[in-house]
Design a protein that fits this description.
alpha/beta, Rossmann fold, Glucose Oxidase, domain 1, 2 domains, seven-stranded mixed beta sheet, 13 strands, 27% helix, 23% strand, globular
Amino acid sequence: MITPAALKPNDVIGIVSPGKHIDAASIHRAATLISQLGYRVKTGARATGRHHYFSGTDAERARDFQLMLDDEQVKLILCSRGGYGSARIIDRLDFRRFAQKPKWIAGFSDITVFHSHLLRLFGVESLHATMPLDFGNDAQPGAPLLKMLEAAGGRQQHYEMEAHAHNRNGIVRATLTGGNLSVLCSLLSTPSDVDTTGKILFIEEVAESGYRIDRMMNTLLRADKLTRLAGLVVGGLTPVAGDDFGMSAAEIIAEAVAPFGYPVAFGFPAGHFHDNFPLIMGRTYQLEVAETTTLHSIANHAVFY
């Protein structure tokens, strides 16, 4: 796997909205917080735009993203929010310059499209991390933003999690991949389809009813995406009020992977909530599930400078 160049103070961070529209206040707040930390900020022309559900037409959003990909000053592209829309522009983008000199692309949820695409086609790491919409009313940079910038800057990651009733013990070292569960399912049989063989798969989901979670897990199972994993890490699973499926999301996931022997860890602090901590997709991690769970990154030696 290839690691983009480490982010340094005074580097330029570009903010784009590749999918759903976002309010201007969230972009302004994000730019202010990032600037306070010593980085320069460049915003895409459609970052605060609106065209129906999206921040612009497909062509406009693709042009915004392409300009950030090709701008040699921009060292990290921060996507403003999730929702939907990345899959509508991904095939319009020209990644040839990016492949020659990769840069960080950061976000989660709908941005799973980019994470999977970059790994599948280019073997380039990216950041599953917080986004401007999730900064809320923060007056000071929060821990998720700080940790994202630290990860992009080259700091190794170490996380510890409490025991969970559905964990399965074990130790494994493998490449991390994954993202939002429903987006991963939507990428099946596309050029951006996630490769899970021998990998640690990370999944998270928000506000999906039990039967939908069950259907998505069954889809991954039938697509042979769960049978040959090295391990599974489960992040946020935001519940739906009044769900009558009869099983929790954690129970559904645990049942789907019960036939396999790899380690499984629930409760990783990443997903659709404020304390959304970064993971580097494409990075090698060591996962150890026991009385407590630890996940720490292993340095990659194929680094661009």
